[in-house]
Amino acid sequence: MSRIQVITIIINCVFIGYIARLITKGKLREEYAIVWCLCTFILVLFSFWTKGLNLMSKIFGVFDPPNLVFTAFIFLILIYLLHLSVVSSKSQHSITRLTQEMALLKEKMKKGDDAEQNN
Predict the structure, then answer these.
(1) How many other CB atoms are there within 10 angstroms of residue 16's CB atom?
(2) What's the 3-state SS for 4-25?
(3) pLDDT one-digit tens code per residue, 14-61
């Protein structure tokens, strides 16, 4: 086993521990942690199974196997960022709607109080 494999495995184990800590503290939801755990598992898998990475690079026609890893993960990160943008947009829409409803309720309460004071 080469040095870079050992370093990669150690870094991935630390990263998994960090993800687990974020989940237990409630700072990261489980649905988002699954993606990070899956990506880390793939990196650990190819750290142990370097022939598999060579085989995958030949299948996809990539000359250098590390380039396949970088290209695949850049593509996955872009897809994940798009997903997070959709989630953020939905949340922003919900917040706007709730704020508008709250403003309307405040206005109704204020009119009700004014009508009560006049009587």
Answers:
(1) 16
(2) HHHHHHHHHHHHHHHHHHHHHC
(3) 999 999 999 999 999 898 899 899 989 988 998 888 888 889 999 999
Domains of the chain by residue range:
3-117
How long is the chain? 119
Per-residue pLDDT reduced to its tens digit, 70-98: 999 899 999 999 999 999 999 999 999 99
Q: b/e string for 23-57 if b means 16 or more Cβ within 10 A?
A: eeeeebeeebeeebbebbeebbebbeeeeebeebb
Decide if 40 contacts 12 (C-beta within 8 A).
yes
Please state the pTM of the whole predicted model: 0.68
What's the Rg (C-alpha) of the chain? 25
